[in-house]
Amino acid sequence: MLTYIIRRMLYAIPILIGVNLIVFFLFFIVNSPDQMARKILGEKNITQADVDNWKKQNGYHLPLFFNTEASGGGHFTETIFFQKSAKLFLFDFGKSDTNNIDITSQISQRMWASLAIALPTFLVGLLVNITVSMIVAYYRATYVDFWSTIVAVMVMSISQLFYIIGGQWLFGKMLRLSPISGYDSGVDMLKFVILPVVIGIISGIGGGIRFYRTIFLEEVNRDYVRTARAKGVSEAGVLFKHALKNAMIPILTNVVLAIPLLFMGSLVMEAFFAIPGLGSFTIEAIQAQDFAIVRSMVYLASVLYIVGLLLTDISYTLVDPRIRFG
Amino acid sequence: MKLLKHSYLIFLLLLIFLISCGVPNNPYPKSEQDEEIYYSTFDEEPKHFDPAVSYSSDEYTFIQQIYEPPLRYHYLKRPYELIPLTAEAVPQPRYYDTDGKQLSSDVPAVSVARAVYEIRIRPGIMYQPHPCFAKDESGVLRYHDLTKADVKGFNEIKDFPMTGTRELIAADYVYQIKRMADPRLACPILSTLKDYILGMEAYAAALANGQEEAAFPGVEVVDRYTYRVILKAKYPQFIYWLAMPFFSPMPKEAIDFYSQPVMKERNITIDRFPVGTGAYRIETLLAHKEIVLVKNENFRVERYPSGGEPGDREAGLLDDAWETIPFIPKVVYKLEKEYIPRWNKFLQGYYDSSGISSDTFDSAVTFNDTGDPRASEALKAKHIVLRTSVEPTTVYLAFNMLDDTVGGYTPEKQKLRQAISIALDYEEYIEIFLNGRGIVSHSPLPPGIFGYEAGETGINPYIYDWDASTNRPVRKSIEAARQLLAEAGYPGGQDSKGNPLIVSFDNTWNSAGATSRLTWMRNKLEQLGITMESRTTDYNRFRDKVKNGNFQIIFWGWHADYPDAENFLFLLYGPNSKALRDGENAANYDNPEYNRLFETMKNMENSPERLTRIREMNRLLQRDAPWVFVYHPVAFGLSHQWLKNSKPSALGRGNFKYLRIDARQRAESRQAWNQPIVWPLWVCLGLLILGTIPAAITIWKRERQTKQANIADEASEN
Asked: B14 to chain A: which residues are within 8 Å by CB?
C-alpha cells in the first residue's frame, strides 16, 4: 500500500508541472505583463515608465520562458515561469500581485468560510440525496418513481442562480426568516449559513437523486438481493442493509473525490451571499488579473484533486476487501 | 425514516432558535441595535491604503476618513471650494523669475521660474493611537525592534497592547512627498509630479540607484509647523493636489515600524493599516468581509459647517451647524458584491444608504411633470430620501484623428464627424439606456467646473440650434446631418466611387445589455447611410488598440481628479496624444491653435480672460469634433430618513464625520419592516407530513404482504 501511495505521489509531480505550465501559458496568452501592470496600476496618468517600474518591482520584467541574455542555467531560471513556479512546489504561494498580501495566509483565513457552507451542504445533501434515492428506488416503477424522476430532472434543469436569487427573495425578503446575505464567525455564523446550505441542498438534489437512484436500482437487481429476499429479509431491510452497503464503491468514488475540493468554495454562492471564501477569492483574482493568486489557486485545486483521487483508491480497500494495491 | 424525522426536528429547533433571536433576518448582533453605527457596503476589496499608492475612489472612501492632506473641499458648497483642513489657510503661491526676483501673482507663466507654496499647519493636531508611537518607560519606541516571538499571533494593529501618539508636524508632510518619489512604491502620479516639483525627477532616479540620502530641493521643512514645496513652473492646479490623499502626512515612525521584517511577514503593512490624524481610524480590516472604522480618540475639536449652497438649509443640511463632529462613533462597511442582496438589505433598513442600478430604477424613481426625479411611492412610504448630483465626469465618443477616414482636420472631415455627432441622438440614449441619469454634454466641461456655461452661450452650435421659445437647445435635424455628410464627400453614405462608408466602433461592450446599445448606434448611423461595424473585445485588447491608435471610434470617459477646466481640456492637448506619447488624449487630437490656447489657459487663475480662452477652445473642439460629446453622468443616491446630513460629493470623500444617525428611529423601522412570516413554513411542513402518510401506509402494507407471503411459504414447506 505504502509503495502504491509513494508511486502515486511521484506521478503527481509531472502532472502538477504540466498544470502549472498550462495555466502559465493560458494566462499569458490573454494577458501580457504590460497589460497586467496597467490593469493593476489603474487607468489614470500611467506611463510606460510606471509600467516598467511595476514589472521590475514584481518580477515580471524577465522573459516568460527563455532568457537569451542569461548564461548557463540562467537561460531557464532567469525567467518569469521559473521564478514564479518553483516555489509553488514547496507550497510557498508568495504575495498577491495586486496588493502584495501573503496568499497562504489568505487561503488559511478564507478556507473556513468556504468550508462553513460547503461541508454542511455536502454532508446534509448527501444524506438527503441517498435517503430520497432509496425511497424512490423502493417505489420503483410506481407513480412515486415516475414523478420523482420528473421533479429531479426539472430541479436539475434550473440554474443555481435561480435558486439563490429565489431563495434570497423568498426566505430573506418575503418571509424574513434569515439574513439575505452576510457572514460572521462563531455562533453568529449559523444564521448566515442556513439559507445558502438549504439552497445548496435543494439545487443539488435533482442530480443527486438521479445518480444514487441509478446505483440503487442496479444493486436491487443483483443476485445477492434476490437471495436476501428469498431468505425473508424485508424490502426495507434489503435496501437499507444490503443494497446500501454494496453501493458504497460508486458512492465513495463520488464522495471522496469531492471532499478535498470542498475547500475551494463555490464561486456563485459565495458572491451572492457575501461569503468571504476561496471561491470569491479566486474569481476576484481572475477579474483583477492577479496571476499570483490564480496560479496558486489552480495549483492548490490540482493538488487537492490528486489527493482526492488517491483517497478514493485507498477508500476502496476499506469497503471492498477484495481490492488490494501492490 | 428516522433520519427524516430527525431532520424535521432539527429544522424546527433551528427555526425556534432563529425566531427567538428577535428579528431573524437581522445580519447584525443584537447588541448593535441601538448604537449610532453607520452601515454601508463596498463591492470590491480595496487594494491599497497607502496614500502614496492609492488612486481609486473605492479606496478613498476609507482613507480620506483617516488621512488628512492640508486642504479639503467644502462639504456643502457647490461649485467645489477648497478650504483648509490641517493647514491654517489655503496657500497662495509666490512666483519668482530666473534671477530669484519675486513676481506678481498674475504674471504670465513663461516668466515664472519658480513657484513656491508655503503651507503652515495648525499646531496641536494629534495622530490616532497607534503602536508605532508607543514608548516604554525610558522613552524608547516600544515596537521598533520586534522579533518573531514579539508578534506571534498578531494579525492586526489592534493586537498590539500598547499605543501612543504624537503631534502632527510639517516634517511628516515632507516625508510623504519624498516617499512618492520612491520607485519601489510605484506612486501613480509620480510621472505627473516629476514635471512640476523641483528636483523630484533627479531624487527619484537617485532612489532607484539606492542613493537614499540624495537631495530633493523641491520640498523642505521651514519650521515645526511649516513646509515649502517649490515648483519649476507656474501651476495653479497644484493646490488641488494638496487636497488629495497623496499629500497626506506620514510619520516616519510608522514607516520604520511597518518596515520591520517580522511585520512584513505578517502582512501588517502601511498599505493595510493607515496611520492618520483624521476623524476615524481602522479598527477591523478584513477586506474580504468587512472594514470597521471607529472614531479617532485623539481627534481635535472640529465644527460642522455653518454655510452651504442654496437649498441646503431647507434640506436640513445646516441643522447641525457649529456642532462638534464627528457624530457617529463607528462605521461598518460590509463587502457585498452583488447588487440584488445589497438593494434588498437597504430596503429592509440594514444599510443606511444605497445607489440605484438600472434593474431597480423604475421601482425606485419616478419623474414629475417637469422631468425632475422623485423617489417612488414605495420608497416614500419608507421615508427614503433621493439625492442627485452631476458627477465631475465626461463621457465621450472619440474619433481617432490619425485615421484616414474619420480623422483629419479638413473641412470635409470636420463635417463628417459633425454629421455623425448630430445623428447620434444622445438625449434619446440617456432616456433609453440610462433612465435619464445624465445630461447631454456640449463640451468636455461638466456643470460645476469653471468654464462650463449653461444656456445659449454654452451650446454646441454645430450640433444644436437654440430654441428661444422654450429656452432649450434643439438637436439639428437628420436632414442637416445628411447635408453635412454630402458636403464631406459621402452623399447618402457613399463616396465618389459609390463605395459605402463603413466605420468601425471599438468597444468592450460584452454584456447581454450591450447588444441593444450597439443596435441603437448602428440604427442611428444607418439613417445617414453609414454602416457601423462593431469590434467588441476584452479590455486588455481594447486598451492596446487605443494605445497603438488602431481604431476609428471608441467610447470612453474621464472622471476629474480636481474641479478645474485644465483637468478636462488636457484630454485633447496634442502633446498628450495616447498613440504618439502615451498620454491621455485618446483621440490623438492635435490642433496647434488649441494647443496654444491650452498652454496659456492652464496656468491662469479663474478669470474672465481664462473664460474667454476656454470658450475659444470649446469652439475649436465643437468645430473639429474630435469627440462626440456624449453626457455627464448624474449620480442618484438614496438614504433612509434616519441618516442625517448626507450630501453626495464626488471629489471630497472624507465625509463620515458630518453624518448623523438616529439610532432609535432606525431600530423601530427595522423592527416594523422585518417581522418574520412563519405560517407558510408550517403549511409546508403539514403538507410534507400529510404526503408521507400514504407512503408510510404503502410501506407498511408491502412489509406485511412480504411477511404474510413468507409465512405462507413456510407453511406450505412444512
From this structure: 190, 194
User: Rounded to a whole number, what is the distance in Å from the CA of A292 to chain B's nearest CA?
Assistant: 15
Name B683's Cβ contacts closer than 8 Å, sequence gap at least 6.
none
How would you classify the pairing of strands B464-467 and B438-440?
unpaired
Beta strands in B166-279 (DSSP E): 219-223, 226-231
Report the alpha-carbon distance of residue A29 to residue A16 in Å, rounded: 20
The one-character DSSP state at B93 is P
Closest C-alpha among B275, B240, B226, B279 to residue B87? B226
Length of chain B: 718
The whole-angstrom separation of Cα B560 and Cα B578 is 18
Name the DSSP class of A238. I
Q: Which residue of B has its CA nearest to A136?
A: B695
Residue B607 corresponds to which cell in the numbers above? 478669470
- Architecture per CATH, domain A104-319, reads as Orthogonal Bundle (1.10)
Per-residue pLDDT reduced to its tens digit, B357-385: 888 888 899 888 777 888 999 999 999 99
- Please write down the HEC assignment for all residues of A239-261: HHHHHHHHCHHHHHHHHHHHHHH
> Which of A86, A40, A44, A93 minimizes the C-alpha distance to A62?
A86
Query: Cα–Cα distance between A300 and A93 in angstroms, integer?
Result: 10
**Quick one: CA dihedral B563, B568, B569, B574, positive or negative?**
positive
Q: Which residues of A touch B265 (CB under 8 A)?
A: 102
Residue B114 gets the label, from left (phi > 0), alpha (psi -120 to 50) or beta, of beta
Residue numbers of A between 33 and 52 with CB closer than 8 Å to B: 35, 38-42, 44-50
pLDDT tens by residue, B687-707: 888 877 877 787 777 777 767
Domain segments of chain A: what residues?
2-90, 104-319
Q: To the nearest 10°, the Cα dihedral for B245, B249, B251, B257?
A: 0
How many helices, marked H, and strands, marked E, lie in chain A? Answer: 16, 0
Q: Do residue A276 and residue B335 have CB atoms under 8 angstroms apart?
A: yes
- Centroid of chain to Cα A244: 26
> How far is B507 from B630, CA to CA, in rounded Å?
15
- Single-letter amino acid, residue B170: A
> Are B529 and B489 a contacting pair, CB within 8 Å?
no
Longest Cα separation, chain B:
130
Kind of pairing, strands B553-559 and B502-507? Answer: parallel
Segments in chain B below pLDDT 70: 1-23, 706, 710, 717-718
Q: Which helix (H) or strand (E) is B533 found in, with range?
A: strand B531-536
Residue partners of A216: CB distance under 8 A and separation at least 6: A133, A134, A137, A239, A243, A244, A247
Is residue B102 within 8 A of residue B96, CB to CB? The reply is yes
Say whether residue B499 is in contact with chain A using an 8 A CB cutoff: no
- What is the per-residue pLDDT for B7? 57
Task: Return the H-helix or E-strand segment holding A226.
Answer: helix A223-230
Coil/strand/helix, residue A208: helix
Tens-place pLDDT, residues B260-300? 999 988 889 999 999 999 999 999 988 889 999 999 999 99
Distance between CA atoms of residues B287 and A99, nearest Å = 11
Q: Do B14 and A271 touch (CB under 8 A)?
A: no
**A54 close to A37: Cβ distance less than 8 angstroms:** yes
Is B529:B500 a contact under the CB 8 Å cutoff? yes
Pick from B58, B286, B289, B344 the residue to mutate for testing the A interface (most A CBs within 10 Å).
Answer: B289
pLDDT at A232: 80
The DSSP output letter for B645 is S
For residue A73, the surrounding DSSP H or E stretch is none
The SS3 assignment for B343 reads helix
Residue B540 and residue A31: Cβ atoms within 8 Å? yes
Reading the block at residue B159, the C-alpha cell is: 493586537
| ipTM score | 0.84
